[in-house]
Specification:
It is built from 12 helices and 8 strands. Helix content is 52%, strand content 14%. With 290 residues, the chain is an alpha/beta fold. The protein binds NADP nicotinamide-adenine-dinucleotide phosphate.
């Protein structure tokens, strides 16, 4: 793997430690290396299982540790200007224990980035006695580098660290900085839970194709490409979705008939209620974890 890292890249002199190397941590590591934002020598990880440690070591050439603390200390900044990021990527139920383990092993100039769903900045900052914390909310397409990740920093995060976070999360697709943790809960309902809404619509359309008489394979191919094309068209045209819809709705035509049925079935209201319910759920889960 090439280690030619551009000097304009905010991660060029940054070392990163991934605490808990499961699906999401691997997606970030793979994206960073693929985009040549870092070289393998800049990345370390920790994992309790030796088979997983060997797997990641062999696949990406990164150094892996059994103890979380060892991985954190490995990227402890030796010089005052050295950039270093610690990524918390364990499941929410493991977080408390991991934070206890890491307490006292974090340098004040290090940045802590959490991808743990529902974990508040305040909890992480208090447990680690550390001011620079970023909370993120990625989604599942991040696993193929096509995700969108909302993120927000604590007051202790400086501009340089913000650009490092942006660069790191762009390796998962697109990174969107939001204003506060309330908006992280909103992003949880919209973009992180979002693929579920789309998969349900996708499934319903494929089933409708089968109902008309298409084979499942053909229905699937037609629906997948139609959805992909519709999103790319909407993005490239910069038009409001209603305008795009009107462009293909001729009087008395098929779209007009289909839209009438969807409005009659309150599809718009159902989607709005679903997103709102997911938002309230995200908020209440966050409250419980406080
Ligand atoms: N996947 C997504 O699309 C997504 C989206 C948004 C947010 N997130 C958040 O991202 C975080 C990671 O999710 P994931 O999907 O990557 O989960 P995951 O694949 O289960 O990754 C977590 C990894 O941590 C390991 N682990 C368990 N105990 C540990 C410990 N004490 N110290 C260090 N590592 C430990 C687990 O090992 P074992 O496998 O042996 O248990 C597992 O490999 C979660 O907090 C989740 O809420 C994920």
């Amino acid at each position: 793997m090439s280690t030619e890292i551009s000097e304009t890249n905010p991660l060029s002199n940054c070392r990163l430690a991934f605490i808990g190397c499961g699906v999401m941590a691997e997606a970030i590591i793979a994206g960073l290396l693929r985009k040549q934002l870092v070289g393998p020598e800049q990345v370390v990880g920790s994992h309790p299982r030796s088979a997983r440690r060997e797997e990641l070591q062999t696949k990406y050439g990164i150094e892996m540790f059994e103890q979380n603390k060892e991985a954190a200390l490995k990227v402890f900044p030796a010089e005052p200007d050295a950039a270093s990021v610690l990524v918390l990527a364990v499941k929410p139920q493991r977080l408390r224990r991991v934070l206890e383990e890491l307490k006292g092993s974090i340098h004040q100039d290090q940045l802590v980035v959490s991808i743990v769903a529902g974990a508040k900045i305040e909890t992480i900052a208090d447990e680690l006695l550390h001011a620079a914390v970023v909370r993120t909310m990625p989604n599942t397409p991040a696993q193929i580098g096509e995700g969108v990740t909302a993120w927000t920093p604590s007051a202790g995060v400086n501009e340089k660290q913000e650009s490092q976070v942006g660069a790191m999360l762009n390796a998962l697709g697109k990174a969107v900085r939001v204003e506060n943790e309330r908006q992280i809960d909103m992003a949880t309902a919209l973009s992180a839970t979002g693929p579920t809404y789309i998969f349900l619509v996708m499934e319903a359309l494929i089933d409708a194709g089968v109902h008309m008489g298409f084979s499942r394979h053909v229905a699937q191919e037609l629906v997948h490409q139609m959805m992909l094309g519709a999103v790319l068209f909407a993005r490239e045209s910069h038009k409001h979705p209603a305008e795009l819809r009107n462009m293909v709705t001729s009087p008395g035509g098929t779209s007009a008939e289909a839209i009438y049925q969807m409005e009659k079935g309150s599809l718009r209201t159902v989607l709005s209620k679903a997103v709102w319910a997911a938002y309230q759920r995200a908020e209440s889960l966050g409250e419980k974890k406080k």
